[in-house]
Amino acid sequence: MFANGQLQPEVIRRYHEVIESLGPEFLKAMLQDMHTIRAFEERAEQLYGLGKVHGTMHLSIGQEATAVGASNALQDGDYLLNHHRGHGHCLAWGSDVNRMMAEFVGKETGYCRGRGGSMHIADVDSNNLGANGIVAGGVPIAVGVGLSIKMRKTQQVCMVIFGDGAANEGAFHESLNMASIWKLPVIYLCENNQYAMSMPVQKAFTIENISTRATAYNIPGVTVDGNDPLAVYLAVQEAAERARRGDGPSLIESKTYRYKGHSKSDRQAYRTRDEVNEWMEQRDPIMRFSALLTTAGVVSEDEANGMRDQAIKIIDDAVAFSDASPAPDVSSLLEGVYA
Amino acid sequence: MREITYAEALREGLRQAMTADPSVFAIGEDIGVYGGAFGVTAGLLNEFGAERIIDTPISEAGIAGACVGAALTGMRPVGEIQFMDFVTLTMEQIVLQAAKVRFMFGGKASVPMVLRTPSGSGTGAAAQHSESLENWFVHVPGLKVVMPSSAYDAKGLLLAAIDDNNPVIFVEHKLLYKTKGHVPEEMYRVPLSQTNVVREGKHVTVVATSVMVSRAVQAAEELAKEGIELEVIDPRTLKPLDDAPIIESVKKTGRALVVHEAVEMGGFGGEIVARIAGSEAFDYLEAPVRRLAGLDIPIPYNRELEYHTVPQVENIVREARKLARGEY
Amino acid sequence: MPIPIILPKFGFTLETADIVQWLKHDGDSVRAGDPICEVTTDKVNMEVEAPEAGTLFGILYEAGATVPVTEVICYLLRPGEAKPENLPVRSTSAETSPAQPMTTPSSAGEKSAKDVSATPVAQRVAEAAHLDLSRVQGSGPGNRIMRKDVESALAQPPGKVRATPAARHLADQTGVDLMTLAGSGPRGRIQAADVQAVTARQTYIEPIYDTPAAAAVAHDVPTTHSSDSATTELPRKVKLEGMRRTIATRLQKSFQTAPHIFFDAQIDMSGIERLRATLKARSEKVSVTAILVKACAGVLLRHPWLNATIDDETINLWPTANIGVAVALEAGLIVPVVPNAERLAMRAIQSKVDDLATRARANTLKISDMMDGTFTISNLGMYGVDRFTAIINPPQVGILAVGRSVRQFVPDAEDQPVLRSFMTVTLSADHRVVDGAQAAEFLQDLRGVLEEPSLLAW
User: Fold this and answer.
1) What Cα–Cα distance (Å) separates residue A275 from each residue in A192, B43, B222?
2) Do C191 and B326 touch (CB under 8 A)?
3) Chain centroid to CA B102
4) Which residue in chain B has the smallest CA separation from C194?
5) Exposed/middle/buried for B303, CB within 10 Å: 0-12, 13-18, 19+?
6) Which fold has domain C3-96?
7) Whole-number pLDDT of residue C176
8) Which tens digit of pLDDT belongs to each residue from A278-288?
9) At least 3 CB pairs under 8 A between chains C and B
10) How far is B124 from B129, CA to CA, in rounded Å?
11) Å between B322 CA and nearest CA of chain A
C-alpha cells in the first residue's frame, strides 16, 4: 500500500469503488473515530500515570483500524463480543465515550457502575455484550448468541473479536466447530496484534495465517491488513452478509500491531524498539487512512488535521464528565449479583 | 396418586417448560436420539425437533458457552453435562462468565440458564465418572446450586430453575434416576431456596442432600424402632441457602448431623455446621455437630470399596444413634 | 553382636524407673536418636533413645515394669545383622533386686482408681492433681488412660467448665452455677439435662417419675404455695464428683487408715513479728507461711520420722524436705509443693510460695508442682481461726495446722505484764509412724526456731 511512506496510486484506484459507495460522511466519521480511540487510549495512559486508574489496562493504540473497520460493517441490533483490549471496539461500536471513561475510572455513571472497569466494559442495551478478561472467554459465548439468533429467527449476526492468543485456546476450536455444524450467524474476528502478551505468533503458530484454521471447520477464512480499516470493513461486511443468508460463520484474521506493552507492567523485552518504530512510522493506521482520504479528496488537509483536536476535545469532555461523576456507594456493593 | 421416576419427572418438567415457553431449549451431548446418558431427555427430540433438543459434539466448554451466550440474548437454555466430573471442562464459562457477567456489567445483563448434571457414585463408574462437585459451585457468587432428592422435587425444582433469571447448577444423582415418587401432572414449581423438612423428629437433626436424603430417612425409620427420632432436613437449594428451618430444627433437637456424598473436607457440610454454630442454635447445642461424608479419596471401582467410600444407611444409623445417646 | 540398650540413669539419685510405654516394638527399624520407650521416674517422664540405627528386638520388660537403672531393657540389631540364636534374658539381678525402702516411693493411691484402667503414671499424676480418673478419656490400648490423657484433662483453661452450649445457655437463664454441677455427658461434659435436673428439683416443675405412685408422692408433698413461704426452697444439690470426689476419697481414707494424734503448741511469734517488721522496713515481704515452710524444713530433717511417707508395707524416710502448702480454691483444696525447702533461702521460699499460690488460683500448676511432698502446712490464720486440726495428706505422716497470731499480756521474768504475739499450731501425726514423743520433740524444736528467728539461718 505504502512505498517509502507514500500511498500508492493503485491502492486508491482499488478502493475507489468502496470510497464512492460509503460516501464522505461515513468515511470522515471512521477517521474521526480512529482519532478518538487513539486519544482515549493516550488519555487512559496519562490518567494511569496520574494514579487515577485502579488496576491495569490494555491499550489498543495502533489497532484502531480493525476496531473501526469491523464495527462499521455491522448493523444496529447485531451483537458484539469483545476482548480485554477492547476500548477501541467499544468506542467504534458507538458506545458513549463519557460512560466509557466513567467506567474506566470506576464511577457510578460508568457502563457497569464501576463494577467492571477497563476489562469488562459492556453496553448491553446496544447489544455490546462486553469486553472479556479471559482469553477466548467470549468465543464459546458467541456460539450461544448465534444459536439464540437462529432460534429467534432474526436477521442479527454476532461478531466475536479475540486475539491471536485466543486462537490457541481449546474453546476456540470447540466453538468454531459448533458454529460451523449449526451454520450459526457468527463472525469470528481474530485481531492478530503479533503477540500474546510476550509470545510472538511466529513461535505460537507454525501456520503463516491463523485464518487457515477455518479450513478445518469448513468455513471461509480470510486474512486482511488489520491496519487498513477498509480492508477490515470489506471482510466483515462479506462475512455478515453470509451469516445473514444463513450460510454460517466465517473466520477473519486482521493483522495489526500494538504499539504499547501488553499491559502497564510490560517491559517489552520480547521485541525491539526498531520493530515498534517500523510499524509506527511505516504502517500507522491513522496516518494511512488519513492519507488515503485526503489523496482521494474525501477530506481536506485542514479537516484531517482538525480531527485530532476534535478527538482531544471529546476526551477532555469525557474526563470532565467522569471527574464530576460520583463514585459507587459502598451501600450498593451487594447489588447486581443475582437477577 | 401417580408415581413416576426421578428421570421421568425431570423429563416431564423439561417438556412442560419447553411447551410453555419457546425460549427454553435443551443442549448437550447425546441428548437427542440417544435420549441422554441416563435417559432424561428420551423422546423429546421427536416432540421438539433438533432445533430445540440440540445434540452437541464432545465440547463441554462449548456447551457451557452456548448456554451463556443464548441466555444473554433472550433464551432460556437447559444444558446437560453428561457426568458431573466433566464440569471441570466447563469451569471457565460457568465460573468466570455465567456467574459474573451480571455483576461485571453493573447488573445490566442476566444469564437465565440451567446446567443439569448427574453426580454421585454407586454405579461402578470409578473415579472420573462418580464425583460430587456441587460445593465448587456453591463457592461462586452469582450461581445458584440445586440438588433434588426426590422425583417430586426434581420436577418442581427444574421448573423453578428454568424460571429463574440466574445461572442454576442443577445437580442430579445417578442412583435417583430410577427411584419413583409421587409427581403431580400439572406444571408446579418447588421454589428455589426453600429448605424442606422431610421428616420430623425431636432427637437429632440430620441435614442431608441428594441421595443421602433417602438414606437418612431409612436411617430414621430404623432408629425409630429404638425410640430415637431423627428430623431429616433437605436444603434442596444449596445456594442461596435457606438455613432458617435447619437452625429452628437444631434449636429443637440440640444435636445435628450433616450427611453428604461429596468429600467431607471442604464440603457443603462445613457450611451447614458453620451456619448452626454461628446462629442462635448454638445456645441449644447438646453435642458437637457431626459430619458424615465421602472419604477424602477418589471414588474406587471395586463395588465393596466404592460402597465404603460414601455414607450408607448403616453409617447414618450408627452416627445418629451415638449423637442421640450422648456419646459425643 | 547386638547392641544392648540399657535403662539410663537420668539423675544421680535415681535407682529405678517405670517403663510407661514402648514407642518402638520388636522388629521396628529405628534411626539413631529415635525414642524407643518412655520411662518415668518419680518426677519426670523421659525417653530412651536408640544409640544408633538398627532393628529393635528382645524387649525384656513390658510397659508398667519397674526397672533398675543401667539394666538392659532391649537390644538393637545392626543393619544386616541376624538375630542371635540365644535370645537375651533378663539379668537375675533385675528380677531379684528388691525395691530400696529408703529411696523408693511407692505409687500411692493406686487403689483409688482401680475401677478405671490407667497406667501407673497416669494414676499418680491424677492423684497428685486431685483429678478423678473416671472423668478422663483414655487414649491408650483398650481406652487405657495414659499420662498424656491426664495432662490434657488437667490442661483445661482456668475457671473453664466443660458444658454444651445448650447447658450454658440454660444455666445462664436459670442462674445455675455450672461449676457446681457434675456432667453426665462424655468426659464429664455438662448437658442441658444436668442443669434441668437442678432447676427441676428446685422448682418442682417436672415430676421425676411419671408413674402414678410418684404422682401420689408428689401430691403428698406439703403444698405451701403462699408467696410468703420459703419452705419449698430445696437445697442446691451437688454431685460428689471430680476434684471434690478425689478429695473426699483421699481424706476419708487417710482419716480411717492413719491413726491421727494431735499436738498443740502455742508459739511466741514476737521475734518473727520483729523480723517481718525489719524486712518490711527494707521493702521485703515475708509471709508467716513462708517462714513456717523454712522453719519446718530445717526442723524436719532433724526429725526424719515426720519427714516420711508410708505405703502398705514401707515407711520411706526422706532425705530432703518437700513442704506442701495447702491452698484453698473454689473447687477444693490443692497442695502444691516447695521442693528441697531446707536448701532454699527465705526469699526464695517466699517467691516460690507466691508463685505456687498464684498459679494454683490460675489453675496453671504443673503436675510436678504437686508431686513428692513429704510434709504439709495448712495455714488458716488469715481467716481468724485460733486453732484447728488437719487431716494428714497421704502418703505423708504429718501436717501442721496453723491458727492466727493473738496478742496477749503475759508475765515476764519479773512477773510484769508484757505484750506478746502467740500463734497456736496443731500437728497431726500418723501414729503408725510417729510416736508421741517424736511429735513433741519436733514441735519443741519448731517452737525454738520460731521463737528465736536467727536460728532460721542455721
Assistant:
1) 16, 61, 79
2) yes
3) 24
4) B286
5) exposed
6) OB fold (Dihydrolipoamide Acetyltransferase, E2P) (2.40.50)
7) 83
8) 999 999 999 99
9) yes
10) 9
11) 41
Q: Please state, in angstroms and rounded to a whole number, the distance separating the CA atoms of residues B214 and B179.
A: 10
Domains for chain A: give ranges and CATH numbers. 2-322 (3.40.50.970)
| Structural domains of chain B ordered from first start | 3-182 (3.40.50.970), 196-324 (3.40.50.920)
How many beta carbons lie within 10 A of that of residue C21, not counting itself? 18
Helix, strand, coil share (%) of chain B residues, nearest 5: 40, 20, 40
Residues of B in contact with C188 (CB under 8 A): none
- Quick check: is B172 catalytic? no
Instruction: Tell me whether residues C185 and B326 touch, CB distance under 8 A.
Output: yes
Q: Among the residues of C303-435, which ranges form H helices? A: 346-361
Give alpha helix (H) positions in A245-295. 273-282, 285-295
Kindly list the residues from chain C whose CB atom is less than 8 angstroms away from the CB atom of residue B287.
164, 185
Q: Which residues of chain C have pLDDT under 50?
A: 92-114, 203-232
CA of B98: which chain A residue's CA is closest?
A: A141
Max avg pLDDT among A2-16, A202-216, C377-391 = A202-216
Predicted pLDDT at A243 = 98
Q: Which of A134, A170, A335 sits opposite B107 (nearest CB)?
A: A335
CB pair distance less than 8 Å for B254 and C192: yes
Task: Check if B203 is active-site.
Answer: no
Q: How far is CA A273 from the centre of its chain?
A: 24
Interface ipTM: 0.89
Are C129 and C156 in contact by the 8 Å Cβ rule? The answer is: no
Q: Which three cell numbers stand for residue A242?
A: 453470509
pLDDT of residue C147: 77
* Domain residue extents for chain C: 3-96, 111-154, 260-457
Least confident of A168-182, B233-247, C265-279: C265-279
Q: How far does B191 lie from chain A, in Å, by closest CA?
A: 15
Position B141 pLDDT exceeds 50 = yes
H helix or E strand, kind and range, residue B159 = helix B151-163
Range from B109-118, B136-145, C178-187, C406-415 carrying the lowest mean pLDDT: C178-187
Decide if A339 and B70 are in contact by the 8 Å CB cutoff: no
Is the sign of the CA dihedral B179, B183, B187, B190 positive or negative?
A: negative
CATH number assigned to the domain with residue range C260-457, chosen from the 4 options 3.40.50.800, 3.40.1000.10, 3.30.559.10, 3.90.1150.10: 3.30.559.10
